[in-house]
Protein 1
Amino acid sequence: MTMGSPVRVLAEATPATRDRYVDLLRVASLAAVVLGHWMMAAVTPDGVGNLLAVVPALQPLTWLLQIMPVFFFVGGFAHALSYRSLLRKRPEGSTDSVYAAFLRVRLQRLLRPTMVFVLVWGAAALLIQLLGGGGGLTDVTLRLVTQPLWFIGIYLAMVAFTPPLLRLHERYGWGAFAGLAGAAAAVDVLRFAAGVPYVEFLNFAFVWLAVHQLGFLRADGRLGAGPGLSVLRRPALLAGGGLITALALVAFGPYPLSMVGMPGEKVSNMAPPTLALLCHGLWLVGAVELLRAPAARLLARPRAWRTVVAANGVAMTAFLWHLTAMLGVYGAMLALDLPLPEPATAAWWAQTPLRLVAAAVLTAALVATFRTFERPAPAAGVQGHGPLAALGATLCLLGVLGLSMVGFAGLLEGRTALLIAVPVTAPAAVATTLCGWLLVERAGRGRGARQRP
């Protein structure tokens, strides 16, 4: 069997009812994040900076390239379909919750490659420090490689909150989204107008869950045609309204231009998220919905669809390891004493395509090494222990977010970082994540698995 055979089989077995565009959006959004990180890295022998800080004129590009909201929007769509499918499969008359099984199903391909990444890098960091290594780019790498885990933490929260928020959606529709968006706006008023401390961290939930809620609306076909609206009218209103409001908030409010975090700025649109970022998310969701029809025609072609299927099978692994690959390329250049031009100079731009190709090749090698952990585990029934699963998801969320902030540098020295207002160390974060993952796995197997013949 050739390497392409499993992909071809999966592609040809795709049900006619599957929304292929959602799969494309998932891959494209993660690919854009990877490329953005590679492009923004301004590495010198003294450390790692941000190209957007070196060349502020490039910051408007973040209004096109900051497409994490699209991934969370797609997540809402997929979570709604998955949870409803499990509800339909629950034995008639059963009062057991499907919540634990839902968590396990949705988190299998997320947590397994994440835990492998965490354990491999944790062991490498410990070995480096025991051998007396570190300093320079090595310490920077140990701090930076875990930063993308913030995304994993947010996604965990979205999965965990799907059942109650889906019920709100089924009862209130657009009103549920409006409630979350209104809460995000209220948080920013309290933050900027009233100076209430720590309130801004609530928008990690309100902003991203509002975008996630748009995925529920799409799952029910409520982002397209409506009373008196053509199939494109509502997405156009969403895109236009979001873009105009985001522009106004940046022009007249306390929000920065960049839709990604910038070093040294007092306010970031990303950490924690702001109302401006939510409006940016609305504009992006509307824009991608406007492209649905031409994209669907493209994905009807077998070769295009096979490419999406293949990319989806390794997307999370590539996301986890892409910074490792990028920093590995820079590390090799420094070790080989190759020229590393000053960022944004003509020589730096001329060298950029070669660095990108090298990072892509190294990422592909890492994907080939670790891709097996992204394959879904065997199904285990549709019922489980809900409270145990909720505890596991909470521990995973806290551990992953904590690790994204503290990194692996200073492992032996007990380096800490603040997760909101709580100091956290890397060993504690790893242990918390591992315990949470094991609880989710155990709870998700539940009685449904044990009763199978």
Note: The two ends are 32 Å apart (CA to CA).
Protein 2
Amino acid sequence: MGTLLEVKGLHTQFFTQDGVVNAVNGISYTLDEGETLGIVGESGCGKSVGVMSLIRLIPMPPGRVVAGEVWFEGRDLLKLDDDEIRQVRGNRIAMIFQDPMTSLNPLLTIGRQITEALELHLGMDKQQARARSAELLALVGIPGAEGRLDDYPHQFSGGMRQRVMIAMGLSCNPQLLIADEPTTALDVTIQAQIVELVKKLRDEIGMAIIWITHDLGVVAGLADRMIVMYAGFIVEESAVKELYSNPRHPYTLGLLGSLPRLDEERPTRLRSIEGLPPDLIDLPPGCPFYARCAYRIERCQRENPPLETIGPHHRVACWVDVNGVVA
């Protein structure tokens, strides 16, 4: 498999009355064709801003991508003009947002919202686009698909609306699907159904996926590789099995410690991460996790560790091995 997406040194800032918010701070990673990449971290860590920066959806003002490169199919997306990036968005790269009720237009039928992209990007006429829309709704498991094309978003349940968003995302056969916490507003049963649906569609269509979530449990069986973000930085990157079996950053340990385990004979008490994330307007000079870290040493307060390779496909940004050995 070849590399589909390469992100290099991406920095995104928001210029506010209170100061400059450092939302994304020099993140770099790659994504292969057909690969599923999970990006995890608590709210406000830069997950959504990072992927919205890729396809130029950051509102300007107040936001701006101030540095970096985003290479996709041989082109730097950050250097495309407005017409060129519009040909990429919704066509080669599709995005599913967190809340389908606010993402769907309540004044337009479901059919119209799907056919619009088909007519714009694939040049279909209205009849062809409508037939394809019915196929897409059936593909994502909506019963009586053709009869639902003239319904409005409020006539669908939350889980069904999210299926509609997935159908819209898949309408132009994208090379890359970005899913921004698509199951957060749904109950756990529907969450599991949506995750299984995405896995099934990924295997059938062969697209790459970036799945953003704050819940490590959701992506455990979906992603091939994981990125852990904190305060706009990537603090750990690893294959999924390696991350769960051998976490090496204190923040990753904290996230995993907050998950209930079903494989333990005697359940252990869930752990919380004490303290608060740093102020993104006034980031500390050292490691951003320093104030909350149980493994910190003096060097952590002075210097922010770079993201370094510690094993096959495993990178971590920490001066201390969590086993207690100073790097």
Note: The chain is about 30% helix and 25% strand.
